[in-house]
């Protein structure tokens, strides 16, 4: 049989398993059917419900506009899949081509797509995290609980972490007239994603809306009362505040523990892949039957020196799902690379924030259009004299232009004047906090001597 | 660049004889995506280049940035936001949007629906007993005019007066000094002044006797940006009145003409009324009311594809050509409401994306659904119908249709 015959047979009768039943998993399943895959399709998900959309959870759901169960993802087509919901995957056996479920069942596959995403990073002291009134926000249940807590009219909400999620929640608290304290280790909100210049704008914005913003501080302890209700938080500067609700918004943890021992290059950093979403083994070899998409995937981006980048962005999940699905049912010569630039958006304090490109891949930033004072501007990011990213505050309609500048490696700062440009268009250092992840130590070690024996093994337990 | 052939193509497009079917000429134009003309202006006709330029911040909508002044734009008073750049554009558009759409006035278009349906119904009621109707005069013109008058607060009975002014303004938009008499330009200018004086009178009235219409709100409500000056209100109202007057007429008429040319699609719409939503999107791609943005100015040197357009140049955007670009749309000359990913240029794109788009969509959806439901076996009387002069805002001047045609 030729490989073309094999491919036809696989598309007709093959077995595909998708692990992870959220945005990336669902869109991949739809794309597989759209590509003419008629074999068996199994969807595995640890949450009990069908795939739902997450961006509204920190926005419309918290305001009470949309009920938590009103965010089911729209279906683009019937995917005719077997759904194994409410049970997480427990292991991947690449020799036997099986996914093992946590309850011991084994699901065989010809090809598998891993889209297990991330979960919320919990508060680091378990007994404090369990206090009544301490929340994280990742799932529908989280959103439902937090919305109820906000609706009960708390005297004050403490938000730990001023990234996008923390800032969005702070914004909604203010919208609902709730007193809110935001604690952030960095010098300003959003600084880890967008740098110091934009971070300062975000800080002004929060304070102008009455947020008690405390930067450069660490929350050391959450204190409960005798009934186990959260009452007070202590900071490392010795101060404390009283609050009824604490939201831990410290980012996510990639769901890769279940892949330990599988031989895949999977760890705290995600699952390393090629641009075609094919997973790499620990040794750095491309697999042919294992694919990854969404928050958990870490793909090289040629625009950014082929660095492996993982993104927790909605559009990235959809695009990778479509590329992965296409490649799962296509021959070598017809495969697609995932090359689109990341796009991200947020709404907070009445401002629409949107980015294109990877702002952390930059050494300088410059306001190219509009006015920072009016919180209506575009800023371009540059790395060694070329444009690598842009962010807009209430000015998103221009971003397509910056996408093009990034894709064509246009010079930084952009040389031509535009209407509505600040008079002194001067680049400033972008100033990101240090690469904290690098400080976590080695994740792999290489063993063996001869080329035939050299292998990589995982050096670190997952945390 | 084949600069020797392309100027001929644009001139032939502007020529009235190609009004009924400019599309083969657009295909010719697309062979040179960015085409330098004899007079130093640049014509852009392909989808991707149009999208690029519409999102390019170095493009200006302000006539003062043209190195060669445009006669048609002179002496017309305070510009409306369509002819301004940020930050002035953003401020005025935002202030107008406050009273027209989300987030401050989210339900405006939905709230108008009962009125839209009633107006459409009563116009169609008047068809009774007529063997032949003119879709333009009897329906597609009076409908949006009634709507925009109601919205703005312009007395409907003044329509015969401002109809003449609006026509003269439209006539002069695509003024060509080589072929048009100076008189046409002068008529346009005078009509603009008279229309503005008329609107100024209405704004003054609203200051003393406000009601619930858009003019009253613009004249009396303060938002975060403060309040528009009376001259800004007049310029905005002038823009909305003309745009609300002209484009929807053409969209509805082009829509009916397209359906009559595709009887199976007409039947399908009758059987599946929900088809109207993608069908109107496809109309905006296939037979849009706005074919050309007749000028933009290069604020600084502007790079499009491999061409650098020098600062101060006039740039002509062939939107309707972009929406028929085979490099973007599969089989673009086919009318196909089931088309996936129909990101047409019917309403433009970028910061000047049509302000009235949501209203125009809903008007056209209701108008065509009701026409198709209630007309009895309609048939085209002449194909092609007679067209209006303008290549910019293109549509039939009359669309005679007979009922009971079999």
UniProtKB/TrEMBL annotation, chain A:
Keywords: FAD, Flavoprotein, Oxidoreductase. The keyword Oxidoreductase applies. One of its GO terms (molecular function) is oxidoreductase activity, acting on NAD(P)H. Gene3D superfamilies: 3.30.390.30, FAD/NAD(P)-binding domain. This is FAD-dependent oxidoreductase. Transmembrane segments: none annotated. InterPro entries: FAD-oxidoreductase/Apoptosis (IPR050446), FAD/NAD-bd_sf (IPR036188), FAD/NAD-binding_dom (IPR023753), FAD/NAD-linked_Rdtase_dimer_sf (IPR016156), Reductase_C (IPR028202). Pfam families: Pyr_redox_2, Reductase_C. GO terms for cellular component: cytoplasm.
UniProtKB/TrEMBL annotation, chain B:
The keyword Oxidoreductase applies. Residues 383-406 are annotated as: Disordered. GO terms for molecular function: heme binding; iron ion binding; monooxygenase activity; oxidoreductase activity, acting on paired donors, with incorporation or reduction of molecular oxygen. CDD domains: CYP164-like. Keywords: Heme, Iron, Metal-binding, Monooxygenase, Oxidoreductase. Belongs to the cytochrome P450 family. This is Cytochrome P450.
């Amino acid at each position: 049989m030729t490989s073309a015959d094999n491919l036809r047979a696989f598309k007709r009768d093959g077995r595909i398993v998708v692990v992870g039943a959220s945005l990336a998993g669902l869109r991949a399943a739809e794309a597989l059917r759209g590509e003419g895959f008629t074999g068996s399709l199994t969807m595995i998900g640890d949450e009990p419900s069908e795939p739902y959309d997450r961006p509204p959870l920190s926005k419309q759901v918290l305001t009470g506009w949309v009920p938590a169960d009103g965010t089911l993802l729209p279906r683009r087509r019937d995917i005719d899949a077997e759904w194994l919901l409410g049970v997480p995957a427990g292991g991947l056996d690449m020799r036997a081509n099986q996914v093992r479920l946590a309850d011991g069942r084994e699901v065989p596959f010809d090809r598998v797509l891993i889209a297990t995403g991330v979960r919320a990073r919990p508060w680091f002291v378990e007994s404090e995290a369990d206090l009544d009134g301490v929340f994280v926000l990742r799932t529908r249940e989280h959103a439902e609980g937090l919305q109820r807590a906000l609706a009960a009219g708390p005297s004050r909400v403490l938000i730990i972490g001023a990234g996008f999620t923390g800032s969005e929640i702070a914004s909604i608290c203010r919208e609902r007239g709730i007193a809110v304290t935001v604690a952030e280790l960095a010098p300003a909100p959003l600084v880890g994603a967008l740098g110091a210049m934009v971070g300062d704008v975000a800080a002004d914005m929060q304070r102008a809306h009455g947020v008690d913003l405390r930067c450069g501080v660490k929350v050391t302890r959450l204190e409960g009362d005798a009934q186990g209700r959260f009452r007070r938080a202590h900071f490392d500067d010795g101060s404390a505040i009283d609050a009824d609700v604490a939201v831990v918004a410290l980012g996510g943890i990639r769901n890769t523990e279940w892949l330990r021992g599988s031989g895949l290059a999977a760890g705290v950093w995600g699952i390393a892949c090629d641009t075609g979403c094919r997973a790499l083994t620990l040794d750095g070899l491309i697999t042919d039957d294992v694919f990854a998409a969404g928050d958990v995937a870490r793909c090289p981006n040629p625009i950014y020196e082929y660095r492996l980048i993982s993104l927790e962005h909605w559009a990235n999940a959809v695009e990778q799902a479509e590329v992965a699905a296409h490649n799962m049912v296509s021959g070598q010569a017809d495969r697609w690379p995932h090359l689109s630039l990341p796009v991200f958006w947020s709404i907070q304090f009445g401002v629409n924030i949107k980015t294109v490109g990877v702002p952390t891949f930059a050494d300088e930033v410059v306001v190219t259009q509009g006015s920072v004072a009016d919180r209506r501007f575009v800023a371009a990011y540059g790395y060694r004299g070329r444009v690598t990213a842009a962010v807009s505050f209430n000015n998103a309609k221009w971003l397509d232009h910056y996408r093009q500048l990034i894709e064509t490696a246009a010079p930084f700062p952009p040389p031509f004047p535009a209407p509505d440009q600040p008079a002194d268009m001067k680049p400033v250092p972008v100033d990101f906090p240090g690469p904290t992840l690098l400080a976590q130590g080695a994740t792999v070690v290489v063993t063996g001597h001869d080329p035939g024996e050299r292998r990589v093994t995982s050096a670190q337990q997952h945390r | 660049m084949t600069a020797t052939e392309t100027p001929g193509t644009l001139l032939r497009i502007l020529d009235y004889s190609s009004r009924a079917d400019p599309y083969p000429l657009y295909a010719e134009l697309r062979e040179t995506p960015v085409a330098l003309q004899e007079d130093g202006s640049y014509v852009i006709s392909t989808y991707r280049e149009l999208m690029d330029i519409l999102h390019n911040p170095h493009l200006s909508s302000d006539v003062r940035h043209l190195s060669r002044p445009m006669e048609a734009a002179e002496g017309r008073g305070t510009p409306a936001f369509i002819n301004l750049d940020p930050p002035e554009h953003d401020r005025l558009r935002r202030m107008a949007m406050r009273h027209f759409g989300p987030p401050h006035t989210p339900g405006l278009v939905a709230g108008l629906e009962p009125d839209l349906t009633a107006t459409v119904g009563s116009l169609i009621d008047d068809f009774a007993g007529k063997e032949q109707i003119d879709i333009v005069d009897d329906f597609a013109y009076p409908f949006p005019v009634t709507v925009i008058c109601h919205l703005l607060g312009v007395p409907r009975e003044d329509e015969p007066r401002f109809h003449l002014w609006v026509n003269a303004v439209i006539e002069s938009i695509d003024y060509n000094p080589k072929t048009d008499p100076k008189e046409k330009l002068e008529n346009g200018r005078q009509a603009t002044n008279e229309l503005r004086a008329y609107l100024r009178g209405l704004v003054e009235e609203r200051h003393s006797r406000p009601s619930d219409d858009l003019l009253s709100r613009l004249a009396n409500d303060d938002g975060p940006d403060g309040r528009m000056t009376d001259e800004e209100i007049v310029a905005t109202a002038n823009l909305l009145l003309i745009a609300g007057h002209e484009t929807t007429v053409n969209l509805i008429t082009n829509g009916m003409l397209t359906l009559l040319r595709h009887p199976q699609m007409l039947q399908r719409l009758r059987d599946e009324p929900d088809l109207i939503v993608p069908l109107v999107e496809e109309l905006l791609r296939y037979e849009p009311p706005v074919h050309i943005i007749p000028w933009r100015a290069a604020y600084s040197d502007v790079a499009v594809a491999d061409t650098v357009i020098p600062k101060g140049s006039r740039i002509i955007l062939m939107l309707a050509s972009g929406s028929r670009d085979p490099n973007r749309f599969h089989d673009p000359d086919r009318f196909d409401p089931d088309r996936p990913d129909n990101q047409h240029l019917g309403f433009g794109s970028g910061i000047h994306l049509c302000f009235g788009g949501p209203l125009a969509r809903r008007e056209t959806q209701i108008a065509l659904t009701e026409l198709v439901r209630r007309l009895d076996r309609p048939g085209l009387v002449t194909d092609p119908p007679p067209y209006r002069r303008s290549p910019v805002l293109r549509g039939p001047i009359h669309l005679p249709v007979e009922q009971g045609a079999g």
